[in-house]
Design brief:
heterodimer, A: about 120 residues, mainly beta, 7-stranded mixed sheet, 11 strands, about 0% helix, B: about 110 residues
Chain lengths: ~120, ~110
């Protein structure tokens, strides 16, 4: 059964870089069958797509975050990573990794990790 | 960016009754090339990640009870719960995956009356 597990620091200081990893088990990122994405949800608010990536490294980013976001994939470790630079309090959110249903970013997210709360505070 | 607007923001329905949630996009999410609507519905219970219910606007995900159905095309979509059960209490989100950036509605909170 597919499982996605996000991990990383729960507290990041303003102006620093948020770094998260999503480890995939029960399936292979290199299987060519799916894109993989990051989505976040500020406390009590709605969902915001951050970006998506394929095992080849082909990636798509949110226009509003593009200047600060880097998403990468490591097929040998079966993991996807997210880096968000120059964070502020507005970046405080639960960060989810999720799988696109198909090998296209233009598909729904059919499997989600449990999410990890990242708080930006000094 | 495509803006997704859900209505209402919250909804209280009696057990066994029908619940209807609307989602409107400010641009079409219907592909002329394959006639699919690039629209999904998710259910999110407190403290849990979203769960995919419906994709292509009306295709139910495997394992989702058939009391959940999706309809609509172009810019106007509806999620219907035909007979509300206690376990359906959740926030429901629509999402377009027609164009980047992919965007979600603000969510609709469904409660028991």
């Amino acid at each position: 059964q597919l499982q996605l597990q996000e991990s990383g620091p729960g507290l990041v200081k303003p102006s620093e870089t948020l770094s998260l990893t999503c480890i995939v088990s029960g399936g292979s990122i290199g299987s060519r069958s799916h894109y993989w994405g990051w989505i976040r949800q500020p406390p009590g608010k709605g969902l915001e797509w951050i970006g998506s990536i394929y095992y080849t490294g082909s990636r798509y980013y949110s226009s509003s975050l593009k200047s600060r976001v880097t998403i990468s994939v490591d097929t040998s470790k079966n993991q996807v990573s997210l880096k968000l630079s120059s964070v502020t309090a507005a970046d405080t959110a639960v960060y989810y990794c999720a799988r696109h249903r198909y090998n296209s970013p233009y598909s729904a997210f059919d499997s989600w990790g449990q999410g990890t709360l990242v708080t930006v505070s000094s | 960016d495509i803006v997704m607007t859900q209505s209402p923001d919250s909804l209280a329905v009696s057990l066994g009754e029908r619940a209807t949630i609307n989602c409107k996009s400010n641009q079409t999410v219907l592909s002329s090339s394959n006639n699919n609507n690039f629209l999904a519905w998710y259910q999110q219970k407190p403290g849990q990640p979203p769960k995919l219910l419906i994709y292509w606007a009306s295709t139910r995900e495997s394992g989702v009870p058939d009391r959940f159905s999706g309809s609509g095309s172009g810019t106007d979509f509806t999620l219907t719960v035909s007979s509300l059960q206690a376990e359906d209490v959740a926030v429901y989100h629509c999402q377009q995956y027609y164009s980047v950036p992919f965007t979600f509605g603000q969510g609709t909170k469904l409660e028991i009356k």
